[in-house]
Design a protein that fits this description.
Layout (H helix, E strand, L loop, with lengths): L2 E6 L3 H13 L3 E4 L11 E2 L7 E2 L4 E3 L5 H9 L9 E6 L2 E2 L2 H23 L6 H4 L7 H12 L8 H6 L6 E3 L4 H8 L11 E5 L5 E5 L2 E10 L3 H5 L4 E3 L4 H9 L2 E2 L1 E8 L10 E6 L7 E4 L6 E7 H10 L1 H16 L3 H4 E6 L12 E2 L8 H5 L7 E3 L12 H19 L7
Parallel strand pairs: 1-2, 1-11, 6-15, 9-12, 11-20
Antiparallel strand pairs: 3-4, 5-8, 6-7, 9-10, 10-11, 13-19, 14-17, 14-18, 15-16, 16-17
The structure holds flavin-adenine dinucleotide (FAD).
């Protein structure tokens, strides 16, 4: 055997798994398909001269999030506050009453979803939402931003299980940078995709970009998008219950478009969040001048994000600029200093934004986390029942999985 545990993926879950394995004295190897660690936690520093998160940015579950505790220990800056929100629609900034009316409608829909879940109805959130409201379109976009899909494709039971207490605080220095620092000392073989896992014998044999390795067991932390696309071949193939579970928890699309704007052009105060209401879910939410930076970051999600991404980076940027024209005036185009867009749906190592159970499939999450054959273990955001779609859910799932693995393998050597 080359090691006790082979860890597939070095996103938040893979890095936490490696550090936990070290703590518990389990020998391990980590394989990462990309040239970098962090997965969907990625901060880009060069393009705009400031840290910009392409993936996770908010410390969800902030008060109990172990990455927040890590940020505290290491002086990584985050903002301990709620968003200051504005609403824009029909060519003008909307009065506060409109924003309050939208917020009331959203509260009603979430409450209806929780009620259905409590009654055991695992149905689409759209099915229980109050009938026709002028806010339904905008809510569709907001629901997609939070969950990955519009209310038609979101399970009430899955949603109700998410623990939404404890705040969501943005990381000023970048959540991706935080995760990269957390994982900096983990030994990872990057540019090293795992292509095949043979679990027919006593342990597991992984075919990787750097040859074959044998381990007692494997911890797979890739997204359900990657698993569903069979980008890792299992031999023998995964049992039907596991494949069904993967199919029940698809990846909702999520994307960001970043626009640099000349200093002084936008007069909104720092760190405003703007919802753009065009009466449909085909819209975006905007972080305007986050932390005083001369930037606007548009958050897109759901089927519309996937559709735009498939049309390419220029189409994504053009859509966002057209909404920004309306908000900030037609001179905007002259004030733009640069623009960029993410492409998570087309990224072969991710294939989407974050996981969300389809209506009727909420219980698939438990099955997703169940080991197979005592040697294939699973972790990652999609496995977390209470914090799916979030980096701290990935954290929690990985720690739990490595403790379970230690229970199966017996105690390892204490760390040196
Ligand atoms: C646009 C966007 C915004 C988000 N915003 C937030 C937010 O504000 N707050 C929050 O908490 N979360 C947010 N998330 C979600 C968060 O980023 C994820 O929940 C988190 O990164 C999941 O970690 P993970 O380790 O489970 O998976 P990943 O981050 O996907 O890591 C899996 C790793 O496996 C690697 N891999 C894939 N295939 C292979 C293979 N064959 N061999 C080896 N390695 C492989 C991948 O390259 C990747 O590095 C956001 C995500 C997106 C896309």
């Amino acid at each position: 055997m080359d090691c006790d545990l082979a860890i597939v993926g070095a996103g938040p879950a893979g890095l936490v798994a490696a550090r936990t394995a070290t703590e518990l004295g389990l020998s391990h190897c980590v394989f990462e398909a990309k040239h970098r660690i962090g997965g969907r936690a990625y901060t880009e520093h060069e393009r705009f001269g400031v840290p910009v998160d392409h993936g996770c940015h908010w410390l969800e579950g902030a008060e109990v999030n172990p990455f927040r505790a890590y940020a505290d220990r290491h002086g990584i800056a985050y903002q301990r506050s709620h968003r200051n929100e504005h609403l824009f629609g029909s060519g003008a900034w909307c009065p506060a009453e409109d924003a309050a009316a939208f917020s009331d409608y959203a509260d009603q829909v979430w409450a209806a979803g929780r009620e259905a879940a409590a009654a055991g109805n695992d149905v689409a959130l759209a099915q229980v939402a109050p009938p026709s409201s002028r806010w339904a379109g905008l809510f569709g976009g907001w629901c997609a931003a939070l969950t990955g899909f519009e209310p038609e494709r979101v399970s009430t039971v899955d949603l109700a299980r998410y623990d939404e207490r404890w705040g969501a605080w943005p990381v000023i220095d970048g959540y991706g940078a935080l995760v990269a620092r957390y994982g900096a000392k983990v030994q990872v073989q990057t540019d090293c995709p795992v292509r095949r896992i043979d679990w027919a014998g006593g342990g597991v044999v992984l075919d990787t970009g750097n040859g074959s390795i044998k381990a007692k067991c494997a911890l797979i932390t890739v997204s359900t998008g990657v698993l569903a696309a069979d980008r890792i071949r299992f031999e023998p193939q995964l049992p039907a219950w596991k494949r069904d579970a993967i199919g029940g928890i698809p990846m909702g699309p999520a994307a960001k478009v970043m626009v640099g704007v000349r200093a002084g052009f936008i007069d909104l105060l720092d760190s405003q969040y703007v919802r753009f209401d065009n009466g449909t879910s085909r819209t975006a939410g905007y972080q305007v001048r986050p932390y005083g930076r001369e930037l606007v970051i548009a958050n897109l999600a759901g089927s519309f994000a996937a559709e735009l991404e498939s049309q390419g980076r220029d189409a994504m940027i053009e859509f966002v600029l057209s909404q920004m024209d309306e908000m900030f005036g037609s001179d905007l185009r002259h004030a733009v200093t640069g623009a960029d867009a993410t492409a998570w749906c087309g990224d072969p190592h991710v294939l989407g934004g974050y996981s969300i159970a389809s209506p009727g499939y909420a219980d698939c999450r438990r099955l997703l986390g169940k080991p197979v054959g005592g040697r294939l273990f699973f972790a990652g955001e999609a496995v977390s029942l209470r914090a799916f779609g979030s980096a701290h859910g990935a954290y929690e799932s990985a720690r739990n999985a490595v403790h379970t693995i230690q229970g199966c393998l017996g105690p390892g050597e204490p760390p040196a």
